Structure formats: structure tokens, C-alpha cells
Amino acid sequence: MVAAGQGTRLGADRPKGLVPLHDTPLVTHALRGVLSCPDVREVVVVVPGDSVEEFRAACDLAAAPRGGSTSHAATAPVTIVRGGAERTDSVAAGLAALTDEVGIVLVHDAARALTPVDVFDRVVHAVRAGHAAVVPGLPVTDTIKTVDDEDRVVATPDRAALRAVQTPQGFLRETLERAHAEAGDGPVTDDAGLVERLGPAVHVVPGDLRSLKVTTAADLRTVEGLLGDRSAHAGRPVLLVLAGLPGVGKTTTARAWARRHRAVHVRIDTLEQALVRADAFSDVGVLGYAAGYELAADQLRLGLWVVADSVNPVPETRRAWAQVAERTGARLVEVELTCHDPAEHQRRVEERPADIAGHEPPGWDAVRAHDYRAWTGAPLTIDTGQHGVEAVVALIEEALE
Question: Given this model, what pLDDT does residue 229 score?
Fold first, then answer.
């Protein structure tokens, strides 16, 4: 594990990794995230040569248990080494400090101080699944222009094919070592760029909006806000409530978000079909929602995050979900999913498989006739006809923060 503690300076008086974030150095926050990852067995922090002792104190702070609790830090030794003049020199120094037992290497930037542990988990899992190089990335939401030397626009890339790449970047050790050994001339902004020159494909997994890189003072203020918000909500579970007609992508979104947060997925269709199979009740719609409210409340009381997956068609159901959050002390995040492209919506409805035993998904005519009341003033409405599931989850994460 290589945690890059170097980087450009926010100010003239100290390296970026030592810039305080809520009175604690950036590298301390970053290292706490690294040490929370159960797959990490060794950490090497690469630092500027004239700041070793300052970085050592910051790293000791990260490794120390907080609040009287033990942490994974006790089983992941942290080594500090001096870096070089260029990024490639620093990463090479970190690689040389790893023991021979290390087979997977993650290269992380201390400037991404709030990267959550699930991003580390996704990168490690993808490397273990057979990808020699893996980077986390987010869909690009801005329109990007390519310009020439005179600042004239020469092309507009399709942003659907673009990703804003983050760290940690994960590699098979031999792949990363070979990339550094065979690095040619020319600028490279990340280690994945070196691997790309060799030829192995670089795989992309979902990144996270919280993994913002601190480069400017404005970035630091943004991250301070995120950290303050996270501290204010610490210990409170989240109830994500989805709404939308059948076929707009609620279950796909719910599963992706639940996997990201290891949350509980409460799907009303599943509960209703269980009542149908029991053959004991007639109004399974009302009873399915009632069971869903109580099931979600039980999980929230345990401190687990929950995503409620249902059509949620009327004000009464929306108020009921809000009451679940209120009586359990959970944070409520409400999202309405739509699909404004009728042809795409119809295709989804007609082609989606039945994935619950005995359940017959409604046809297109039934969906169009559904008694779905418009959610006036919904906190967040997302058109899934315009956004893929990764982008939808990213927008939900932004609302969550």
C-alpha cells in the first residue's frame, strides 16, 4: 500500500499533506481512511525529504485509536520514506519499501482525504477479480471541449464515455513495477497512465464524490464542509426512499446504492409477493407497504442504512416513509426516479425479466394507467433516461452529502 504524502503546496509554508483540515493534517484524515480498509496489510507514506518528522507525527495521530476503541491500525504497520523530485520517483520509492509478500498495491493521494473505505474495497475486489490495473472514476457531468494551441474548439467528446479518475489506483505489483521500469518520456499524471503505455487495459470502478482532491483553498473549504456535515450526522443511519413508476430503474438503483453502502434493501414487490404466496390476504398492496415500514424501522434502529424500493405513488406512502425516519432518528433522503423518454420507458417495461418467483411485472398499458400522483417539490428528481445507474447513484451521493 503506497499513500502519496507529497504533492503541490496549497500555501508557501507547508506541504499539502500537512495543511490542516479541522485542525488535523490532510494526511492524517487520508491515512485514517486507509487504515479502516480491512484488506490493507502494509502502508508506506511517501513524504517530502525535509518534512519527515512532521509527517511522522501526523501518521502517528492517524494510527492511534480514537475514543478508546481499537482500530485496524494496530495490524497495518506504517512506514515513512522520502520521495523524489517527480511523482514517478516517489511512487518508485514507496514500491521499494514494500515487503516481498505484497502482491496488490494501491496508490493513493493524501489530498483525497475523505475517500470512503468502500472505494478501497471496490478497487481491491476488481484487482482480485483479474484486472491488472483498476482506477475509481465518476461520470463527467460537464460538457468537455477539446481546444487547439489558439484556444479554438476542435472537438466535443461524448461525455458518456468520459470519467473523472480518482485514487486509490490499484495494481498487480508486477504490473506497476514493470510500468515504472519501462516508463518513457513525456508527462504522466497518474500511475494508470504508465500502465496504459504498456498495453494492459485499465478497468474503471465507481468512485465517490467525497473523494475530492484538495488542490486549491476553495477545494479545502469544500472538504471542510463535507467533513463538518459527516461529523454532524455521525452515528445516524440513512433511509433512502425511492419513488417512481415501474420500469424507471428503482430496483437497479436500489441494488447499486445498497452494495455501495452495504445497506438493507427493502423491496415492496418482494414483500407483496410473499403475501400472495401465503394466500392469506387480499389487499397485499396495503399490507406490503405496512410490512415494509416496520421492516425498515427495525433495521434503522440497529444503526443499519436502508433503501426503500417501491412505487411510493401517493402522499400517504411518502408521509409514512418520512415517519419511519422520524421515529427511528434516521436521516431521510427522498428521490423520485423518472424516465421522460416514453420509448425507452416502454422498452424497459416490456423487456425486464421477472426476478421474483411468481411475480408478473405490470405491462406497459398497466404502467401508463397507474395511479401515480406527481410528487410536487420532490427533494431530488432524476431522469434515468438521461443518466446511467452510476450517474444516478453519484447524484444521490451528492444529495446525501
Answer: 61
- The angle formed by the CA atoms of residues 205, 207 and 213, to the nearest 5 degrees, is 140
The beta strands (E) that lie in 36-167 are given as 43-47, 78-82, 104-109, 133-139, 146-147, 153-155, 163-165
Give the cell for residue 154: 476542435
Helix or strand (DSSP H, E) at 226? helix 217-232
Cell triple for residue 305? Answer: 442504512
Distance in angstroms (rounded) separating the CA atoms of residues 4 and 83? 9
**What mean pLDDT comes out for the span 193-202?**
89
Q: Tell me which residue has cell 390476504.
A: 281
Look up the CATH superfamily of 2-231. Answer: Spore Coat Polysaccharide Biosynthesis Protein SpsA; Chain A (3.90.550.10)
Output the pTM of the full model.
0.61
pLDDT tens digit sequence for 68-119: 333 334 468 999 999 888 888 899 999 999 999 999 999 999 999 999 888 9
- Cell 442504512 locates to 305
The residue-averaged pLDDT of 22-30 equals 90
Yes or no: say if 90 and 83 are a contact pair by the CB < 8 Å rule: yes
SS3 of residue 333 by DSSP: strand
pLDDT band at 375 (very low <50, low <70, confident <90, very high): confident
Quick: pLDDT tens for 48-61.
Answer: 888 899 999 999 98
Q: What are the residue boundaries of the structural domains of the chain, listed by start?
A: 2-231, 235-400
Fold exhibited by the domain 235-400: Rossmann fold (3.40.50)
Nearest to 330 by CA among 249, 400, 271: 400
State the DSSP H helix or E strand holding residue 267, giving kind and residue range, or none if neither.
Answer: strand 264-267
Report DSSP state, residue 67: T
Return all residues near 101 (Cβ < 8 A) that are at least 6 apart. 41
For strands 146-147 and 24-25, give the pairing: unpaired
Burial-class residue 74 by CB neighbours within 10 Å (0-12, 13-18, 19+): exposed
- Beta-bridge partners for 171: 105, 133
